[in-house]
Design brief:
It is globular, with a radius of gyration of 21 Å. The strands form 3 sheets. Strands 6-5-4-7-8-11-10 form a 7-stranded mixed beta sheet. It has 16 helices and 17 strands. By secondary structure, it is an alpha/beta fold. 47% of the residues are buried. The two termini are 42 Å apart. Bound molecules: zinc ion.
Length: 426
Amino acid sequence: MTAQQTATAASPASIEQQGCRFCGAKLNETFVDLGMSPLCENWLTPADLEQPERFYPLHAFVCDECYLVQVKEYVSGEEIFGGEYAYFSSYSDSWLAHIRKYVENVSDRLELNQESRVVELASNDGYLLQYFVERDIPCLGVEPASNCAEAARAKGVPTRNVFFGCETADGLASEGWQADLVIGNNVLAHVPDINDFVGGIRRLLAPGGVNTMEFPHLMRLVEGNQFDTIYQEHYCYLSLIAVQAIYAAHRMVIFDVEEIPTHGGSLRIYARRVEDASLEVHDSVTRIVAEERAAGYDRIETYRSFSQQVVDTKNGLLNFLLRAKAEGKTVAGYGAPGKATTLLNYCGVRGDFIEYMVDRNPYKHGRYMPGTRIPVLPVEQIAATKPDYVLILPWNLKDEIAAQLSYVCEWGGQLVCPIPEVTILN
Ligand SMILES: [Zn+2]
């Protein structure tokens, strides 16, 4: 079954009552309102095209107490991430190279060995833990999507098919999985109950244990105009200021931070329990918090100016597509990540502007984009139809994709990137 068939919306009354998902304050301040959008992983089958589709308000707020940027919960996390989930982490080469390097570095830094315990939250198809398995370091994945958990087990990565929170953490800890390292990559933004999740990390950590989390950095989102990374499945958009407050509330200390290039600019934090004082807090933490303060991330006015830059980007993309259309040029889309659904729905770009999308993930082939209903085909379709423009939707991977698509210039085709503003690549 697709998500569309199972998803039920929260009641309007309960949505109205939702406060900040960290501090509970009433949400009054708009960060950006992107109109109505469907769930971004709700790939349509040909039969679904005859059916109506459910759209949800895609309206990001910023809490004026703790500065956590967030969307309200219209669909529960269980419905989005449980059951079958179409995103397999192993489909990107550069992502796997990034992960392999991380596993090498963190294993050395924490001196992990056969006696250690490593737990990854939202372990997907085992893309990361496979490298710990290679090193004979005991590890366990926690993954709510059954198809991803199954794919991980097939690779030899032990995986529990459950959601993570305090209850799961207590269960794992009592079974001997108190962890020397708890990993969470691109999951902190995806959890509706961030207090239950971060509280669970604290409970799962062994004395002296370390937690590393990677998440897209809000400052990069704003600077890079990455508004298309806002979608229902991403409940929070995180500054270090906000994450530090959340961790402190759960008696944890962020003692180191690295800025990494993934997903348009992310942070990797290293955290420990407050009482494990042997790990000193590095300058990196104070430096990035100071940069955020200097850029105004502790003042509400800063957040109010984002909406206009989003409107400008939309107008730029539409102008480009209208001009291409007027000149009789053809446009195809490369890559159908979740952010493509936000971008295309918000800009109102459907099959009239983009003839088809291609993606490397076979799960999406023969299906249609949520909302805009643009067909998704195998990558070979580009060479077969020779479009004038190929719009690269996963702009965070644009260098890797441009190298893969170098053959497009053979027929005079050009590659186009929509974010931070529409640009023709050379
Ligand atoms: Zn708040």
